[in-house]
Design a protein that fits this description.
It is a single chain. The protein has two domains: about 1-100 and about 120-195, 3-Layer(aba) Sandwich (NADH Oxidase); about 210-275 and about 285-365, no CATH class. It contains 15 helices and eleven strands. By secondary structure, it is α+β, with helices and mostly antiparallel strands. About 35% of the residues lie in helices and about 10% in strands. Helix 14 (about 335-345) runs antiparallel to helix 15.
Length: about 375
């Protein structure tokens, strides 16, 4: 998401007399006052990250995410995306509530719905946007108008590469950013700016010989260190993918109905996970510990009401039903689950119907009585 807060402008005369070292220190302090846990400064040289992206795209590991091709070099050349950019302010916002039922426990309870922990509360785009506005306002109050543009997540910005260069963490073998004091359960945001701020030191790599994330990926989507094949990834399959889920991955999905946290769960660095201080990330409608059947019985109106302001709403009702049908097919053949699937099979869209029929077939394998 791109938030246009101002047009990039030349440094004005007032800014010529700024103590940029002090300003940098102030920005980091103001970022914390605005609700972020950490901030750092990156330069605009993302050549190495750009080469990695081009190789990933060449191997077709982006699946159907054609938007990864768009914008070309602007994705890894900040000054091409936003002319006049001299440095990037990168921020970290922790989202995990450590008191919740652990995700790994939910994946073992086959009647439950396992939802990625980042998606349980308010859409992070809105939360980060508001905090970045506060940070921009604090900078403007100190130095006057300055050129900037704010981003969070979906714009053509290589946020993990930027955050790594800004010292916020290192990119792990699962391709997520890891912080030595906070693990990996956090969001990132950026401010492209014309302020000539001194870059922080790039974070060094600390995964060592550990390959736990690669070994524990349910669908073997991490095909090599730093190489994720999206077409195999449960997060892609349940969120970005709007068509049928390939049968070869349905059993491995288990009860993961929105995203997948497995590679983070097994990462040793997440023993340092910090409890979020952000109330907007508190779970809504008990999505942190819900029954698959309960969620499957939502009609479309209920889905839209209960996911208002949530990232889950973006996948739409059909994908939600598709994912839940797979989860129910991987559960136990309880009568109420079978009845719910049967009641929806004829009225469902062709895509959802396919997954319901698959679920009924899978459940029938667990009982001596055929499921008609």
């Amino acid at each position: 998401m791109v938030i246009h807060l101002a047009t990039i402008l030349p440094v004005n005369q007032q800014q010529e007399h700024i103590d940029y070292q002090q300003l940098k220190a102030n920005i980091k302090a103001w970022a914390k006052e605005s609700g972020f846990q950490q901030a750092g400064i990156s330069d605009v040289n993302l050549k190495q990250a750009g080469e990695h992206l081009k190789n990933w795209l060449k191997k077709q590991h982006h699946a159907d995410m054609e938007y990864m091709h768009k914008h070309g070099e602007k994705r890894y050349q900040p000054e091409a995306l936003v002319p006049g950019t001299l440095s990037v302010i990168s921020v970290r916002l922790d989202y995990m509530q450590t008191s919740l039922t652990p995700y790994e426990e939910l994946t073992k309870q086959v009647s439950k719905a396992a939802i990625s922990r980042y998606a349980l509360g308010r859409d992070y785009h809105k939360v980060i946007r508001n905090k970045l506005k506060k940070l921009v306002a604090k900078i403007s109050a100190e130095i006057g108008p300055f050129g900037h543009r704010v981003f969070t997540d979906s714009a053509p910005v290589m946020e993990k590469a930027i955050a790594e260069k800004a010292g916020l963490g290192w990119i792990g073998k699962h391709s997520n950013l890891i912080n030595s004091k906070a693990g990996s359960y956090f969001f990132l945001g950026e401010i492209y700016t014309d302020l000539p701020l001194e870059p922080d030191r790039k974070q060094s790599f600390h995964c060592g010989s550990c390959t736990q994330c690669i070994q524990d990926c349910p669908t073997d989507a991490i095909i090599a260190p730093f190489q994720v094949d999206a077409s195999r990834c449960i997060s892609y399959l349940t969120i970005e993918n709007h068509g049928p889920i390939p049968e070869e991955f349905r059993k491995a999905m288990g009860n993961r109905i929105y995203g997948c946290d497995d590679c983070q769960v097994v990462c040793p660095w997440n023993k340092f996970t910090q409890n979020t201080a952000e109330p907007d990330f508190a779970p809504r409608h008990h999505l942190d510990d819900s029954e698959l059947l309960e969620l499957f019985l939502w009609d479309e109106e209920t889905f839209l009401q209960n996911t208002a302001g949530s990232p889950i709403r973006r996948i739409g009702y059909q994908s939600w039903q598709r994912n839940l049908a797979v989860g129910m097919g991987n559960s136990k053949p309880h009568a109420n689950i079978i009845e719910a699937l049967k009641q929806k099979v004829n009225s469902a869209s062709p895509m959802v119907k396919e997954h319901i029929e698959w679920a009924l077939t899978e459940l029938s394998k667990q009982t001596s009585t055929p499921i008609a």
